[in-house]
Structures are given as structure tokens and as C-alpha cells.
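Sharing a chain and its predicted structure for anyone who wants a worked example. Both blocks are below, sequence first, C-alpha cells second.
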Amino acid sequence: MEQMQEYRPRRRRRKKQSILTAAPLLICVIAFGVVYLLTGCFGLNKGTDNRPADQPTTPAIETEAPAETAAPAATETAAPSETEAPATETGEESTETGETEPTEAPTEAPTEAASGKPEFTTVGEGYFDDALFVGDSRTNGLEIYDPPSYGADFYCGTSMTIFGVLDSTESVHGTTGFANVLQAKDYGKVYLMFGINECGYDTEMFVDSYREVVETVRKYQPNAIIYIQSILYVTQSKENAMPVFASEKLKEKNRAIAELANDRDIFYLEVNDALNDGTDHLPEDYTGDGVHLKASNYKYWKEYLYEHAIVDADHPAEAAPVDIIDD
């Protein structure tokens, strides 16, 4: 009996310990069951999709938010697609009325710009019958050896410069002085070439005087096309002997006077394209002194002028000759 009494208490003690050990597990199971029943029966979990970001499940809302905003984004892109059809219809109507669609403007702008700038045309000798050539001894050589037309007039002289042409006393058909010559006859074209005698002068000073001459021509010849011809290069050997004639210096001045052209009624002509040895110098065999062309080589200058003419209603031209240069 004593042994039985001692044994029973030990069994009660063990049973109490097992119950206490299992209690937390039971509580968890019961709590989980309650949560499950509540969320399943009352739909508490269904409202989290539309709740703002103050809910504990913020990451879930952030991932769903773009999905919710994706629908409006799609409708926003869909809206322009609905208005695109009317835009196309109005675009077709605008083309009928002469207006252009916004998408066509970039392609039409260059075309308009290109069409607004006259292109050079090859002409015949008659185009130069109403032309006046103004310049120094190089222009004088063109007059003597191979003028573009025997009907053209020449106002030129040895050592004439852009600084002195307005006060010069050369004459044309008995009329003396540059301004008087310009007033004595209506010219359709006026060709200018200066610069070889002005190589040692400042470019800005040179251009200012050139601009004054152009303005004087325009004043007395409002309907004439003004052609600004480039300063012709010299030979490499001439440049070596006299660096003042260096091609780089001539290019600088040519770039400056080219800015005086507006491509409407004043045009720049790069005559050096026809008289270039490939190194931006006058070919050695084209000249005897390194500066002036030989008589037989003025034809290259003349050919360039024939191929670079502006023709319009006010300045017509006959058909171009088949061969300008007979080699």
C-alpha cells in the first residue's frame, strides 16, 4: 500500500506536465481555426485588394496598384486611337485645301526650301549679252581672250581693287566712272571678281568694301542678278615665292564674301572648281606667271560661267550649246 501511494502522485505529476506542454499547441490550433472561420465566413480577406496603402500588407497593394492603374493607361492610349481616325480624315481634307498634316511637315519643309532656292542652269552665249563684268586684270584677260559673249560689257583694269572701284575712271561705251556706267544701261547680270590685289589686307575691311560695292550695284541695277565670283588661286610655286597669296588666305576671304550672297538675286560662284589642280592651287600649266591664265585657258572659266547661270522669267536664256569647250 505504501508503495502504491508513492506511485500515484508521480503519475499525477506527469499527467499535469503533459497537459501544460500541449496547451500552447492547442491554443495555436484553436486560434488558427478561429481566424480561418472568420476570414472564410465573413469575407474579411476580400476587402484588402481595394484598400489604401495604410494596410499592413503594403507590398501586396503596391504590386496590385500598377495593375489597377494599368487599365486607365490602356484606356488613355485607346482614346487617341479613337481620335486618330478623325485626324486622318482631317489630314486628308487639309491636303485637299492645301494644308499639310503635322506628320508630313518635316518632309515638305526641305522640299519647299529647295524649291525656293534657284538652281544653276547651263546656258548659251546669248545669256551674257546683257551682262557687265567688273574686276581687275584677270577679268580684263577674260574680256580680251575669251569673253562669254561679245555683247557683254567689261568694267575692269590692271590693279583695280574693291577699295578703289567706286572711284575709278574706267569707261564703257564712252561712259566714265563706275556709278555712271551702272546708270547708263539696264543690265540683267553683274559679275564681280576682286581679291587677288587685296590679299595683304584685313578680311573684315575687304568684306566691308565688297558689301558697299554690292549695295551700289543693287542701287543702280535693282533688277540685275549679282554674281560674286571667288578669288582665283595662284600656283603652288607662286605661293611658295609669295606667301601673301597662300590659298588658305584666299579661302578665308572667299568664305567671307560668300556670306554676302542671299541665293535670291545675289549668288556666289566658286570658280576655283574649274581651275584647281587638286591641291587648291592654280595648275602650273594654266598660267605663265602663276597668277594670270594663259589665253587658251580662259575657256575653263568661261565654261564654268555657262554652267552656273540663274534662269527665270526676268532673265531668260536660249538652249545651251552642245560643246562649250573644244579640246
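Comments welcome. The CA atoms of residues 75 and 81 lie 10 Å apart.
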